Amino acid sequence: MPGPSNPGPWPKDVGVVAMEVYFPSQYVDQAELEIFDKVSTGKYTIGLGQAKMGFCSDREDINSLCLTVVQKLIEKNDLSYNDIGRLEVGTETIIDKSKSTKTVLMQLFESSGNYSVEGIDTTNACFGGTSALFNAVNWIESSSWDGRYALVVAGDIAVYATGNARCTGGAGAVAMLIGSEAPLVFDRGVRSIYMQHAYDFYKPNMDSEYPVVDGKLSVKCYLHALDKCYQAYTEKATQTGIKGKEDNLINSSDAFVFHSPYCKLVQKSFARIFLNDFLQEPSPDFSGRYAGLESLRNLKLEESYFDRDAEKALMAASNSLFTLKTKPSLLLANQVGNMYTPSVYGGLASYLLSASPSELVGHRIVLFSYGSGLASAMFSIKITKDLGPKLNKLLENLSNISKNLQNRVKVSPEEFDKTMKLREETHNRAPYTPVGSTEGLFPGTWFLTEVDSMHRRKYDRVPLVQIPNGNLQQTGDVK
Ligand code: ACO
């Protein structure tokens, strides 16, 4: 990979240069979980749209997830740690109230001698990764930029107490290399933000990994934030000429990727933006695109979050557009679950995997990021028009996702439940030696070996089976 560009007054095409996705090597099947949880058949798989849920044993924590994804990104792109001038972590999986995961990751930089790396951790539910990403983009577009890449890591272990939210968990991490002359370019002047105070999902109990969650309120907050971001983004897209004055946003974008707490909410979200377009349309075509929606013409957005009839009609009317523009982004969300901060970027990776490189060229992807509490944003990415080596490499590096999904180990709901209990009982314990097996972990995965009496954590790495030069990769020595 060519080195970073020199700093200039206004760097060209700032965006994602490379991506790496990590998810656990074990999962629980949602249909089996329905039986175990004694809920009606289809509630998790059809009602929420989830097939499998990835989860971690006591061998993995937020530091190990981020170590894994960062090292893999660096290795697969033949980068030097000296190429990185900023490193940001977005996470809500807090295991230390003071020491950031970013500082743990600095161990990977040690042999390069690069200690000059800006950035720290950012937290607000599932939004921390997006805030970290915006910081990285802003840095590259600022007078502080020194010409090196920024590296953004979004990672989380999403676990809930037993009950109706548990099936919406997941785990994973996404790393994104941000630089100029990128193959995935952030549109300028359209980023739209909506932030508000809400107690929909929060983690006030420091002794537990679990959130306090008001599920219905969180859905309402999510949809309200989506309306607000979509309206603001649409206005900015019109002002900047990304979309024509007469056109609607769905028509002028190729894909819509949403933060995915569960896939059914994403389908409802697409129906929601379809509703926004419909209500803005001066003369809707009731014999075509908006057939059957006459009775919804005076629907009030604020009164319709749980209007089941309206939702059903809108989902039916928008289904073919949803299938085309959003469904392809749901692979990881369906197969791994809600990864929290990485969720929307897992959606981006899934979308990029869903078509051939030549089909993706020139596409505009609109992303919606939501974090409870609440913080949200809508922004967009344009895929470079030329199928150059950078885009090819980015896509090629994502191609192992499907294989890794297949290679995971299915664990019974009973084992999953035991693992959750173990994590509960040993959360914050020191000293502690993890007992989970390391056998099934993917090559190159970092795992926890020990927490000493002073809460200092030590890690080791599963050897990479084969690296490009044909040698076996040794385990690492991060402590
Ligand atoms: N077959 C098919 N569908 C079914 C079945 C069945 N047997 N049983 C239920 N369903 C449907 C329901 O009709 C419902 O669909 P609808 O919403 O379209 O009407 C869906 O399955 C879910 O059923 P509910 O009874 O509404 O589910 P419940 O209230 O038990 O829990 C919830 C759902 C609130 C999402 C819960 O899982 C939760 O709290 N999750 C965590 C919070 C969350 O993810 N919030 C989203 C934004 S914030 C964030 O990202 C964390």
Write a structural description.
It contains 15 helices and 17 strands. The chain has helices spanning 30-36, 43-47, 62-76, 101-105, 128-140, 215-239, 249-252, 263-280, 308-325, 331-336, 343-353, 357-360, 389-398, 400-406, 413-426; strands at residues 15-22, 26-29, 52-54, 84-90, 121-122, 149-158, 170-179, 184-186, 192-195, 201-202, 212-213, 255-258, 364-371, 375-383, 409-411, 446-451, 457-461. Strands 1, 4, 5, 6, 7, 8, 9, 12, 13 and 14 form a 10-stranded mixed β-sheet that branches. Helix 6 crosses helix 8 and helix 8 crosses helix 9 (308-325). The radius of gyration is 22 Å and the shape is globular. Bound molecules: acetyl coenzyme *A. Acetyl coenzyme *A (ACO) binds next to helix 2 and helix 6.
Biggest sheet statistics? 10 strands, mixed
Q: Based on helices, strands and strand pairing, what is the structural class? A: alpha+beta
Task: Specify the CATH architecture of the largest domain.
Answer: 3-Layer(aba) Sandwich
The CATH topology label of the largest domain is Peroxisomal Thiolase, Chain A, domain 1
Radius of gyration: 22 Å
CATH class of the largest domain: Alpha Beta
How many beta-strand runs? 17
Q: Gap between N and C termini, in Å?
A: 29 Å
Count of domains: 2
Mean pLDDT: 95
Helical percent range? 25-40%
**Proportion of residues in β-strands:** 15-25%
User: Regions with pLDDT < 50 over 5+ consecutive residues?
Assistant: 470-477
Note the total helix count.
15
Shape: globular
What is the CATH superfamily of the largest domain?
Answer: Thiolase/Chalcone synthase
Q: What ligands does this structure carry?
A: acetyl coenzyme *A
